[in-house]
Amino acid sequence: MSTAEDFLLIATDSDTGKPMIGATQSAPALGGAFLFDLVGAGRLALEGRGRSARVAVAEHSPIDIPILEQAFARVRNKGRLTPSKCVSMMGKQAKGLVYETLVADGTLRRRPAKALGLFPLTRYDLVDTTRRDDLRTRIRASLVHDQPADAETRPLIGLLSAAGMTKIVVDRPDRRTAKARAKILSEGDWISDGVRAAIKSAQVAMS
């Protein structure tokens, strides 16, 4: 399962089927998840450091994971991009795409609903909670009990921290501890920094 799928899975309320993260945060966060996986797959790479850092294409060949290929196609021919611009481009309209992928693999089930009893919308009910429960348990262990983060949970913690949403995976009394711990774990994570910058830019544009 891709990092974007894992992220949206843990960010979906198991009782209501609603995402627990708003559009302003979810789009850059999912873009960051795509970026993490595409760097890992050797398609994208970071060049330079600090303010001069840019994301560049390292290998133009398609990737055989449809959800990642669709994200990659958005930036493949766009030249060198700042991390924040890259995650913004790849995260645009990503939530629906990721949800449909989770439905297709049987993890979620689509359910029609109405807002205020009038406006049609879609909720996503969990069919199999095994993956979600396991990820959330491991993330909480790292954020609350100082257990080491692993290869799957570390990028998720960085994305949750960048989106200011560590609170969705821990109980209320642990929120302050989790936020501080996530900040420590994500230090030096340039992808999370890019997500954070993209969210800030989006918030400024909306103000």
Quick summary:
The chain has 207 residues and is mainly α. It has helices at 3-10, 23-40, 66-75, 83-91, 94-104, 130-145, 153-162, 175-185, 190-206, and strands at residues 44-47, 54-57, 108-115, 119-126. A two-stranded antiparallel sheet has the order 1-2. Strands 3-4 form a two-stranded antiparallel ribbon.
Poorly predicted tracts of residues:
none
Arrangement of strands in the largest sheet:
1-2
Let me know the number of strands.
4
The CA-CA distance between the termini, in Å, is 36 Å
Question: Number of helix segments?
Answer: 9
The total number of structural domains is 1
How is the biggest beta sheet arranged? 2 strands, antiparallel
Topology:
Blueprint: H1 3-10, H2 23-40, E1 44-47, E2 54-57, H3 66-75, H4 83-91, H5 94-104, E3 108-115, E4 119-126, H6 130-145, H7 153-162, H8 175-185, H9 190-206
Antiparallel strand pairs: 1-2, 3-4
Helix pairs in contact: 1-2, 1-5, 2-4, 2-7, 2-9, 3-4, 4-9, 6-7, 6-8, 7-8, 7-9
Can you give a write-up of this model?
The chain has 207 residues and is mainly alpha-helical. The protein has one domain (3-198): yeast vps74-n-term truncation variant domain like (yeast vps74-n-term truncation variant fold). The chain contains nine helices and four strands. The protein has helices at residues 3-10, 23-40, 66-75, 83-91, 94-104, 130-145, 153-162, 175-185, 190-206, and strands spanning 44-47, 54-57, 108-115, 119-126. A hairpin with a 3-residue loop joins strand 3 and strand 4. Helix 2 (23-40) crosses helix 4 (83-91), helix 4 packs across helix 9 (190-206) and helix 6 (130-145) packs across helix 8 (175-185). The model has no long low-confidence stretch (mean pLDDT 93).
